[in-house]
Amino acid sequence: MGTKLIVFAAIVSMLLAYYVYIPLPEAVDERLKLMLVDACFRSLEHLAELTELVGFKHYMEMMMVLTVAESVAPSSDENVNVTDTTFNKVPVRVYEPSGHRPGLRRAVIYMHGGGWCLGSSKMQPYDLLSRKSATELNAVIVSVEYRLAPEHHFPDQFDDVYTVVKYFLQRDVLVRYLVDPGRVALSGDSAGGNLAAAVAQQIQEDPEVHAEIKIQALIYPALQTIDFNTPSYQQNENMPILPKTLMVRFWSEYFSCDKLLLKNMMANSHTTLESRGLSNFVNWSIYLPEEFRKDYKYTLPGRENVDSSVRIPGVFDPRAAPLLVGDEKLKALPQAYIATCEYDVLRDDGAMYAMRLKKAGVQVTHEHYEDSFHGTFMFITWPTDFAIGQKMVSNYIDWLRKNL
Known about the structure:
- Helix content is 42%, strand content 16%.
- The chain has 404 residues and is of the alpha/beta class.
- Helix 4 (124-137) runs parallel beside helix 16 (387-403), helix 5 crosses helix 7 and helix 9 (244-255) runs antiparallel to helix 10.
- The radius of gyration is 21 Å and the shape is globular.
- The N and C termini lie far apart (68 Å).
């Protein structure tokens, strides 16, 4: 009996090891921890696929389990006052530093990541980031709880964030929160970085807004819908946390539940006659440094497809894809901080935006992490705390302290 148990345990251990193990680049730190985290993510993804297949729940509804599990209630302490409220009917969580320091305060309006489908300002990692930012920067942090797909599609997410930013920039609101109107930043990670960049572009043209955004701080942002075959999409197609299949599905769900759009996006054949004219804005053979291009060969993305994207509004709208604007619009943008990770399908989106902003005359700090992967910025709470995540957050706050 004992021998059978030992053999059974050995078999189970080998199967678990086989499931958990994935080949990772040598440069990635804490690889075993990443494998374990990725195994948990993949298990949830498999469950989501199964529940969708049998018609029980939409894929993204099942994936929201992680968001719900990590949500925390608003809780003030000796350093920060935390409140849930609404800005013009959009839910936000506001973090105000305690104490009475002299002078007006900074402000950061932050958009969480999650592919426009998942995530929440109430998740523990975002709560920790907001507390840390509020305390160390003496800043008011407004964390936006925007609507999510599949229940809500573009432009609902953009509209929610735009509404919050416009509301907060009103003179009486800035006075209420003791915020210096010249020290307001927009920031976000992943899909949140997309929303921050898009709103920074559009808000500057609003005649009703008189205060200006000083900083846009974008953490591995998703910025373009033209080419899902950039070098980083190819190099990191099967990397943990955000493989190409999941990122493309996020993009597809942002616009529609149409499975034909998803299929064409996966094949990088979703372009239209209109979008072909926008390809120069994301030509990575021009806008990527040589170390990112490597030996990959540029080809014009996709083909004209009248069956999918042309019927779905917004796919190539710059409010959804901020890279798809001309240099004239970029010239007026505020100073930018852009963080990218080597092992991330979105690496090239951020790198191209940094290059185009620089060419347009915008002051840019591009911080690239050679040993990091997508999601690292939010892996700052136990048991998924990574040293590189702590470093990224520390560098981000230090940069804001010096520039905001």
